[in-house]
Amino acid sequence: MSIRRARLSLLAASLAAVWPAAAAATLVVPVGLPQMTREAEVIVHAEVLGQQVTWSKDRARILTLTELKVIEPLKGVAKHERLVVYQVGGTLDGVTVSIPGALRFVPGERMILFAQRFDGMVVSYGMGLGKYRVFDQAGAPWVAPEFGDVAFVRPTGDGRWSASEPPETGPWPLDQFVARLRGILAGGAR
Q1: What distance in Å separates the CA atoms of residue 84 and residue 46, rounded to the nearest whole number?
Q2: What are phi and psi of 88, to 5 degrees?
Q3: Distant-in-sequence, close-in-space partners of 29: CB < 8 Å, separation ≥ 6
Q4: Which run of H or E residues covers position 86?
Q5: 10 Å Cβ neighbour count for 147?
Q6: How much is the average pLDDT of 92-101?
Q7: How far from 153 is each of 24, 110, 161, CA to CA, in Å?
Q8: E strand or H helix at 90
Q9: Could you tell me if 79 and 43 are in contact, meaning their C-beta atoms sit under 8 angstroms apart?
Q10: Please, what is the average pLDDT of the chain?
Q11: Strands, sheet with 161-163, edge to edge from the N-terminal-most edge strand
Q12: Contact, 149 vs 26, CB < 8 A?
């Protein structure tokens, strides 16, 4: 076992012992919107067109491939481009592989997605991070983060970790959220 894996196992065991909610969730350090906006290779307002669950080429993993239609490109893509979100896990041939913390995508839903490029596809910015669901409220589009099944933690500075709040949770009017992203991308607003 590598030192890194051993440390992560020790972290998970330590948090599970003192914080029961962490035992059932993936542990994630919160990332603020400005940092995620700067670091993501792709940011889009998109709609989920559909999903395909398949085996990896070597038949070692079940994969869920989610097709997105770009409604509004914000970074790294063109309008009306189609993207495929790559995720490990899913149900196929009577086998279910569940990845705690993985984001869920539903055909027909709209979102702002922060992603990284991967093998001709994209993956979410981080485990349980990067998806901001777009929904209608009082006849207007709004946006709010949709985290996977994660528990947020922060280092305490003395080699330990403690429970943390999630990053900003909103909701915000969609047009204001997009304007904020554009401001961050332009090097202005934080």
Answers
A1: 11
A2: -80, 135
A3: 152, 153, 154, 155, 164
A4: strand 82-88
A5: 20
A6: 91
A7: 14, 28, 6
A8: strand 90-92
A9: no
A10: 87
A11: 26-28, 150-155, 161-163
A12: yes
